Amino acid sequence: MGSGENKVVLHGMWASPYVKRVELALKIKGIPFEYVEENLRNKSPQLLKYNPVHKKVPVLVHNGKPVCESLVILEYLDEVWSTGPQLLPKEPYQRANFRFWAAYIQQLLESIFKLFNADKEAHEKPLQEVHEKLRNLEDGVKEFYFPEGSPNHISAENLGILDVMLVSVLGPFRAKEEAFSVKILDPGKNPLLFSWIQALIELPLVKEVVPPHDKMVGVLQFLKQSGFKF
Amino acid sequence: MAEEVKLFRTWSSGYALRIVWALKLKGIEYETIFEDLTNKSPSLLQYNPIHGKVPVLVHDGKPVCESLVILEYVDETWKHNPLLPQDPYEKSMARFWANFGDDKLMKSIWQLFIAREKDQDVAAVEALENLKLVEEQLKGKKFFHGETVGYLDLAFGWFADFVSILEEIMSLKLVDGERFPHLSSWIQHFIDAPVIRDCWPPRDKMIIKFQVMRENYLAAATPK
Question: What CATH number is attached to the domain comprising A70?
Fold first, then answer.
């Protein structure tokens, strides 16, 4: 299949966890794509045309047709590029299980955003919520994703939707912790999640996608100071 | 060996209704377990430990949670009478709009429903904007996917019922036929569609339930 038949353009923003999911998924599946960095304070006419409902990134444009919403895009990629690395398993019950946990990792991100939005003095409750979700996630995926109890099987060749989601949310966890002076991921409390994300961020493919630490700290602090609502 | 399908639901949950419709549309036999969410059964908490919510589908002892995840599971497991479009792009559009329905539309309708009188006009603006987007999607179509009921109709099904309940309780017209001809028409077709029409929860019970809910919200919002 020639490159002319499958033109893929990703509209994104370098710090957006939602965009990172799609970026990583495209790389895992070996799909060549063009990347367009959007200035979210001055959105391109193309972005507004392709995502008139939400006006947000990421937008994947495949042969001129836009697909919006990160999880919708991930499923679309798996269905169109159905040979080669797959983000979801084939069996329906396993698919349902992966979809459930992918959505749960998104809820974890929402809890982290609540933490970011809270005043420093009011950190305790949102932080508890984050830790509760981390605990649920650790216990939930243990049985079916890490039956040996450790992320020995993590490699560039077998990354799937849960790895993609985890990278998007916890890939820059140290930057988030530094920017907000909070402890999000404790290896003592979440040994499995900690070693899982460590294994992931060591992979060259993932390193290409996770934003540089200092740049991330900078943008998070800048956004918080300017009153941005995560 | 016969398959065992169980559905945990409540009498009024619109999310659970999606699965009732899906199973009936595919002619799948199942056992219903009605839950009282103020007194959850040990089974529900065992099958859905994270959220403790309905619906939960249990197929041969294995639980599936979250209504849209369950819909996809049902469609992938029982492949006849497909609910989702086959084409990947059409499928992505269906998922997009289902998310819109649950994230944006439902929130804005609910905000209008619990708004104090002085806040209703503002709340109505967002609700109406979202309704306009749904109206656009229905142009030239009887149901969301064409001539027959499918995934997106089930996803928006709660809305078909709730609109008239909201309108009666609040004494206002939200989806009027002139402003929203396609949406109005979809509501009529969907409410009366085969299988769909046999499953609606009792309207009088729904009116009471939501009236009480609204009164509680308004009372809590009133400054002391």
Answer: 3.40.30.10
pLDDT band at A63 (very low <50, low <70, confident <90, very high): very high
Closest CB from B76, B95, B133 relative to A53: B133
Candidates A65, A100, A136; nearest CB to B89: A65
- Between CA B199 and CA B20 the distance in angstroms is 8
pLDDT in the model for residue B2: 66
CATH number of this structure's domain B5-77: 3.40.30.10
Residue A211 and residue A167 share a domain: yes
Is residue B195 within 8 Å of residue B27, measured between CB atoms? no
Chain-chain contact of A79 with B76 (C-beta, under 8 angstroms): no
pLDDT digits (tens, 9 = 90+) for A158-173: 999 999 999 999 999 9
For residue A112, being part of any structural domain is answered with yes
ipTM of the complex as predicted: 0.95
- Minimum CA–CA partner of B70 in chain A: A96
Task: Report pTM.
Answer: 0.96
* Shortest CA distance from B67: residue in chain A: A100
The whole-number pLDDT of residue A4 equals: 52
Element (DSSP H or E) covering residue B124: helix B120-137
Give the closest of A65, A71, A92 to B73, CB-based.
Answer: A92
The whole-angstrom separation of Cα A103 and Cα A116 is 20
For residue A80, the chain B residues in CB contact (below 8 A) are: 88
- A65 contacts B73? CB cut-off 8 A: no
- What letter would DSSP give residue A4? G
Q: Could you tell me the pLDDT band of residue A1, with boundaries at 50, 70 and 90?
A: very low
Closest CA of chain A from B96, distance in Å: 7
Cβ neighbours of A92 in B, within 8 Å? 73, 76-77
- pLDDT over 90 (residue A153): no
Those residues whose C-beta lies under 8 Å from the C-beta of residue B182, and which sit 6 or more positions away, are B135, B138, B139, B141
Low-confidence ranges of chain B (pLDDT < 50): none
- B-chain residues near A100 (CB < 8 A): 64-66, 69
In this predicted structure, what is the pLDDT of residue A156?
A: 87
* Chain B residues with beta carbon closer than 8 angstroms to that of A72: 92, 95-96, 99
- Per-domain residue ranges of chain B: 5-77, 88-221
Could you tell me where the beta strands, DSSP code E, fall in A101-206? none
State which residues form the domain around A48. 8-80
A110/A50 same-domain check: no
Supply A6's token pair: 């499958």
Q: What pLDDT, in 10s, does the model give residues B38-81?
A: 999 999 999 999 999 999 999 999 999 999 999 999 999 999 99
Pairing type for strands A65-68 and A59-62 reads antiparallel
| pLDDT at residue A3 tops 60 | no
Q: Which residue in chain B has the smallest CA separation from A63?
A: B89
Per the structure block, which two tokens stand in for A167? 């990278």
